[in-house]
């Protein structure tokens, strides 16, 4: 991976480590812009490393792994990962994902987003499931829609589908700046921090706000 990344002129690989604990320590010491983390690593897994990095540094964690288990994906997002990408992508796709995360966008490729939707459709753990006769909740129905304008709801729906700001702007016939302004408004109203959390909020109705130190 280091060889691949150094082949792109826009990147500088400032360090490589052997496990999640070293990754968290490296980010605290050197503050790289983006940290690529695998899910399964010795001593500390990538999810916990992402949690520490997101909480203690300005580095943006990006999961790059072969594991597309729904549990890993949801836990990584809740931990503060700004993206979840599979290693079977072309180098150019990985490059674009790193650049997107660096530019404060979140990255969930289609297969990952589909996994999240499938997991949510199956319901929560048995102890948390509603009665079997209860109807399933469709995306956007679990949130307090009265808090948002119709346009904001449209924006949230498109984010939950995995669309970028540019794609949303084209679909809704508005400028990228206007899209960004709507997203800022949504973040302010919900107390969320980034687009991935907006997607989860829209799909589940749950606003996951990191605990204050």
Name the descriptors:
four-stranded parallel beta sheet; 8% strand; alpha/beta; 213 residues; single chain
- In round numbers, the mean pLDDT is 83
Number of helical elements: 10
Shape: globular
Low-confidence stretches: 124-136, 209-213
**Rg computed from alpha carbons, rounded to a whole number of angstroms:** 18 Å
Largest sheet: 4 strands, parallel
- Multimeric state: single chain
- The percentage helix is 40-55%
Beta-strand proportion: 5-15%
Strand elements, count: 4
**What is the CA-CA span between the terminal residues?**
34 Å
Query: Helix and strand succession?
Result: HHEHEHEHEHHHHH
Give me the side-by-side strand order of the main sheet.
1-2-3-4
Q: Could you say which structural class the secondary elements and strand pairing correspond to?
A: alpha/beta
Write a brief caption for the model.
The chain is α/β, with parallel strands linked by helices. It has helices at 2-6, 20-30, 46-56, 70-79, 91-102, 110-121, 150-160, 165-172, 176-190, 195-204, and strands spanning 34-37, 60-65, 83-86, 107-108.
């Amino acid at each position: 991976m280091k060889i691949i990344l150094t082949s792109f002129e826009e990147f500088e690989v400032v360090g490589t480590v052997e496990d999640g604990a070293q990754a968290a320590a490296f980010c605290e010491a050197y503050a790289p812009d983006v940290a690529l983390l695998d899910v399964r690593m010795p001593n500390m897994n990538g999810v916990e490393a992402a949690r520490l990095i997101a909480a203690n540094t300005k580095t943006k964690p990006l999961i790059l792994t072969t594991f597309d288990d729904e549990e890993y994906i949801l836990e990584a997002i809740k931990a503060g990962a700004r993206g979840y990408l599979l290693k079977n992508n072309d180098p150019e796709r990985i490059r674009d994902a790193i650049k997107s995360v660096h530019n404060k966008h979140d990255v969930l490729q289609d297969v990952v987003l589909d996994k999240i939707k499938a997991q949510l459709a199956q319901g929560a753990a048995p102890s948390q499931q509603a009665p079997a006769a209860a109807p399933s909740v469709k995306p956007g129905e679990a949130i307090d829609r009265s808090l948002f304008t119709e346009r904001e709801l449209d924006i949230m729906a498109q984010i939950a589908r995995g669309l970028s700001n540019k794609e949303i702007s084209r679909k809704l016939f508005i400028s990228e700046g206007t899209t960004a302004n709507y997203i800022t408004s949504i973040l302010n109203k919900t107390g969320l921090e980034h687009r991935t959390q907006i997607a989860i909020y829209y799909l589940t109705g749950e606003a996951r706000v990191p605990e204050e130190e």
